[in-house]
Amino acid sequence: MSQEAISCQLSAGSHQPLSGGVAASPPRPLPTLLRAFFCMALLLGASQLQLNAAERVRAESDVQSKVVKLFGAGGLAGLQGYGTGFVISPQGHIATVWSHLLDGDTVSVVLSNGKRAIGRVVATEAKLDLAVLKIDAEDLDCFDLSKTATAGPGTRILAFSNMFKVAAGDEPLSVQHGIISARTQLSARRGRFASNYNGPVYVVDAITNNPGAAGGVLTTRDGQLLGMLGRELRDANSQVWVNYVIPIGELAPTLQAMVQGEYVRSPESADSSSTGRQVPPRTFGMLLVPDIVFRTPAYIDEVLPGSVADKAKLQPDDLIVFLNGKVVNSVRTLQAEMNLLQPGQDAEFVIRRGSELITVKFPVPLNLGDGM
Q1: What is the band of 333 on the pLDDT scale with cuts at 50, 70, 90?
Q2: Is residue 10 part of a domain?
């Protein structure tokens, strides 16, 4: 068939009879006004998408300027030496999770512009898993604790954190997108021990329980502060990891009091807290890593020169696994067992040094305080 014939057939096809013998009507073009309406709707939709994307970029940039990277104690038995915090005053107050990261005398704080500062712990509250650091600074971008938000299930959220130590300088923090799945009471554990905090939490569908994420922030899509990312915990019943966030409403009054220097911890919190280096009774001259998380492994952090521990050739980074035949599964267990020892009694330690198990035995000295 020739091209002219095909062209003629196509042009005439719309007028040929259907199988029933009825001629089909030619397609009718859309009215000009209706076409204009559809074009305008498409343009408005595209403009709104661009506007929403631009607003989200601005909100993320604003939040990034108020969140910091923290580098402190850690590196032993899977305890990471990095984390996240967020600025809560122009004068350099920083909120974060109360954890082993704060065991050292100072914490290195890296601002969003890459500048580094030394942070010192000024207040803690174990029941809220909360701590506040202070750096020397002025006019920092910060979250206004009097202007925070609340949200319910289904709310779209952003989670900002330094998970996996992706950022170390002026690189932006990781941002996860998700929704709030539920608001409920936290019932979680770390090993055999229940978490300090058991109040209301947001449960989110973003994986926020990664190493280094604790202390980060959860915000709405437009950058309003919703809460602080919690530590790595498992559900007390199902034993699955929990992606939870402590609502800022639970923290704000305490944080404001801490910033103003007016916060006084309850006696229960003071008893359970150990943010500074303390020498417990019957150390035999060895300082253990600070006991700030549940079931902290009984590693030796320092050995005092001339002490019983020094004479017995104990060394920093030795892990104590047995004392007089009893399993030592934490710093607390070791300290409790050492406090039961009597002068003149033999103390037999089994330690792990590298890949070796070594037995160290010595009599308990009369001077039980420092082992000198």
Answers
A1: confident
A2: no
Whichever domain contains 304, its CATH number is 2.30.42.10
Reported as a single tens digit per residue, the pLDDT across 9-67 is 444 444 445 444 555 556 555 567 666 767 776 666 655 555 467 777 888 999 999 99
Angle at alpha carbon of residue 89, lines to 133 and 149, rounded to 5°:
105
CA 357 to chain centre: 35
Containing 13, the helix (H) or strand (E) segment is: helix 3-13
Phi/psi of residue 107, nearest 5 degrees: -125, 135
pLDDT at 5 (0 to 100): 47
Distance of CA 261 to the CA centre of its chain: 25
How many CA atoms are closer than 13 Å to the CA of 175, on its beta-carbon side? 18
Number of domains comprising the chain: 2
Which residue range(s) make up the domain with 143? 63-269
Mean pLDDT confidence for 133-143: 95
**Same domain as 249, residue 335:** no
Where does the pLDDT of residue 277 fall: very low under 50, low under 70, confident under 90, or very high at 90 and above? very low
Neighbours of 214 (CB within 10 A): 28
What is the pLDDT at residue 281?
43
Query: Measured between alpha carbons, how far is 274 from 16 in angstroms, rounded to an integer?
Result: 91
Contacts 24+ apart (CB under 8 A), 180-183: 180/151, 180/152, 180/153, 180/154, 180/155, 180/204, 181/153, 181/205, 182/153, 183/152, 183/153, 183/247
Residue 278 lies in a domain: no
Residue 22 covered by a domain: no
Compute the distance between CA of residue 274 and CA of residue 87 in angstroms, rounded to an integer: 23
Q: How far apart are CA 247 and CA 262, in angstroms?
A: 22
Question: Which residue in 51, 153, 134 sits closest to 92, CA to CA?
Answer: 134
Q: Is the pTM of this model over 0.70?
A: no
Average pLDDT, the chain: 82
Residue 171 lies in a domain: yes
